[in-house]
Amino acid sequence: MKKLKLGVLLTVLCLMLFSCASGNPYAKVDNRVSRGKYREGLELIEKDKKKLYRDKDAILYYLDTGMLNHYDLEYRRSTELLQAGERAIEAAYTKSITMEIGTYLLNDTTQEYAGEDYEDVFINTFNALNYYHENELEDAMVEIRRMNNKLQFLSSKYGIIVDNMQKKALENSAEIPPNQAAGKTTFTNSALARYLGMLFYRGNGNYDDARIDRDQIKVAFANAPSVYTYPLPHSLDGELNIPEGKARFNVIGFSGSAPVKEEETLRIFIPNARYIKIALPVLVFRPSAVNRITVRFDSGESFSLELLEDIEAIAKETFKGRANLAYLKSVIRGTVKGVTSSVLDAGSERTEGGTALVLGILSLGTQIFAEASEKADLRISRYFPAKAYVGGITLDPGIYSYTITYYSDNRVVDSLRQENVEIRAGGLNLAEAVCLK
Fold it and tell me: What CA–CA distance (Å, rounded) separates 314 from 259?
């Protein structure tokens, strides 16, 4: 009983020593970004780069700065950064397939950040938009095809990793039950990717492939009802029915900020007054003030944008696989550390004198180390949007000025003004707006 009380006391002291409230190191950057001051946000990141991003966080740096450059209309620089992030994510995944169980014995934060699946997928969305804005439509279409290929791969992406981890766990005498849910997702088709594909094909005059992607939007909604919980945009069918001599104008409006992570802690008690600590990352949505977006022309025409892609819902769906993987890894780590502590404790019971004391202290120290070292990996990029709204209108070709307005009910949250924009017949006229509030 005295040993148990001492263990509890030391564990509490350990928690006090290793726990500290560091706050949000990105607060200043977030503040600038929420007000649309993307260049200032980038300058703050570069100023505090070493504090915000460790060497193992290179992917986070590429994603954050790549997205902010996109919002700042620096499309070529955005592409360079996002493609660097994409290559690093691919390399990290390849490396993870062959990782030994020993690499997981501290916690996931000691490893290179490998990117969330939704981040990897939506890299291609914004690279496609980068290329479109640079009048490189063929390259934009390549990005959409890459995105679709990644989505098809998601359902089996983690199977090899799970198998390897379970094999290594058994080799370490850690009896880990198979986790059939690990790594699986039902999300394999993005309405936003298909929408962009439809627009790009239409812009190239390829209406047959445009119809295929238009129909695939409907398939995406039908096959993932837990993600697409809202109706199809009403403007969808009008996208391929443009009268001769008329022009079609489309808008994509991004709003809100994608989720961040928080830690959830579980403890599983095992014999000899020991327990396994499991620290898991959970996604936390960031509230957005925006619930309505309109486009109004100075000439009187207007239309509302409709929700097409709930990116934060997709982040949640694709996170399921990685969350199950994190659970499995945490159990393996806890079991290995718990076995070590129990062996040392048993040794102290079988011996006497100084040896027993040393083994007892080592046993207790091992449990304290397990408590302190088990931390959830809370790394995630911060500047992907939460939602994508779309809409379109058929107009006479000409020069137009318009305002895109973001609302919270009837209150104006933000607006984007564009003047003297040429809207042409027979081509793609696509505008993009962003409000991360």
Answer: 10
User: Are 269 and 253 contacting, i.e. CB atoms less than 8 angstroms apart?
Assistant: no
> What DSSP character marks residue 397?
S
What pLDDT is recorded for position 289? 94
In this structure, how many other beta carbons lie within 10 angstroms of the beta carbon of residue 176? 17
**Beta bridge pairs of residue 421:** 400
- Token readout for 109 is 């934060």
Query: Please, are residues 280 and 290 in contact by the beta-carbon 8 Å criterion?
Result: no
For residue 234, with 0-12 CB atoms within 10 Å meaning exposed, 13-18 middle and 19 or more buried, which class applies? exposed
Q: Is the distance from CB of 436 to CB of 256 less than 8 angstroms?
A: yes
Q: Give the HSE-up count for residue 30: Cα atoms under 13 Å, Cβ half-sphere.
A: 15
Range 278-288 burial, b when 16+ CB lie within 10 A, else e: bbbbebeeeeb
Residue 122: pLDDT band with limits 50, 70, 90:
very high
367-388: pLDDT as tens digits: 554 555 568 889 999 999 999 9
The dihedral formed by the CA atoms of 194, 200, 203 and 205, expressed in degrees to the nearest 10? -70
C-alpha of 320 from chain center? 12
Return the ∠ at Cα 90 (arms to 88 and 91), rounded to 5°: 65
Strands 302-304 and 247-255, sheet pairing: unpaired
pTM of the model: 0.83
Element (H, E) at 208: helix 207-223
Sign of CA dihedral 215, 218, 222, 226: positive
